[in-house]
Structures are given as structure tokens and as C-alpha cells.
Amino acid sequence: MAQVKNESEYKAILARVDELFFSTDENTPKDDPRLVELDILTKLVEEYEAEICPIELPSLAETIEYKMRELCCSQKDLSVILGISTSRLSDIINGKKKPTYTQARNLCIKLAIDPAIVLSL
């Protein structure tokens, strides 16, 4: 399959993606050539972006801190939610300790954190 070779090709393809995107809508038939081209070009752009500027998963600490802001709660409040001590949660956030299996499971289930983040994969 074709690949985007450089930044100028990438920009040209993005411009074409914009044109195609705005020339179609949800009522455009699936077999319309514009949608087919849009699909192909979008995949090329995604592959190029994944190779050139991959987006890394956030750290567990960043994710926990984000969840605390999202829930408007303190470390103490979150430790109650997770059923662990505040000091243990602090150690996990500061990277001093890894969560136990049960703690990791609770982080995933109770805070809806991706297991790959909790396991640092």
C-alpha cells in the first residue's frame, strides 16, 4: 500500500481530506467515490502520524491526578473510593510503589482507567 513519504505530501493529503470531508455528509452513499477516497487518505494520514508523532499513554500518576480533578476530589477522598490508605495512594502517585493486583483492579474498575496505563504497558 502507498505511504506518505514526507511532510509536504502529508500536508497535501490533509488538504484533500478537508475538501472531501466538507463535500460529504451522513447522507452520502457509502459507495460514493469521495467517501472511498476519504477513507483511503485518512488511513494514510493515521499511519503517517502514528509513525512520525506517536501519542504515548499518560503515566498512571497523570491519569490518577486527572481523575481526581474530574471527580473534584482530594487524595484522601480518592483513597476512600479505592479502599486504600492515603499514604499508599500517595506512594502510587509518586511512583514509590506499584499498585497491588487488587489496587490495580480497583483503579481500572472504579476510575475507568485503561489497564495498559495501570500496568504501564
Describe the structure.
The structure is a single chain. The chain is mainly α and about 120 residues long. It has seven helices and no strands. The protein has helices at about 5-20, 35-50, 60-70, 75-80, 85-95, 100-110, 115-120. The radius of gyration is 22 Å and the shape is elongated. The two termini are about 30 Å apart. About 10% of the residues are buried. The mean pLDDT is about 90.
Summarize the structure.
The chain is mainly alpha-helical and 121 residues long. It is 65% helix and 0% strand.
Q: Specify the biggest β-sheet.
A: none
Backbone structural class:
mainly alpha
Question: How does the overall form come out from the CA principal axes?
Answer: elongated
What is the count of DSSP helices, taking H or I runs of 4+ residues?
A: 7
Radius of gyration from the CA trace? 22 Å
The quaternary organization reads as: single chain
Taking pLDDT < 50 over at least 5 consecutive residues as the criterion, the unreliable ranges are none
How do the helices and strands follow one another from N- to C-terminus?
Answer: HHHHHHH
Mean pLDDT: 92
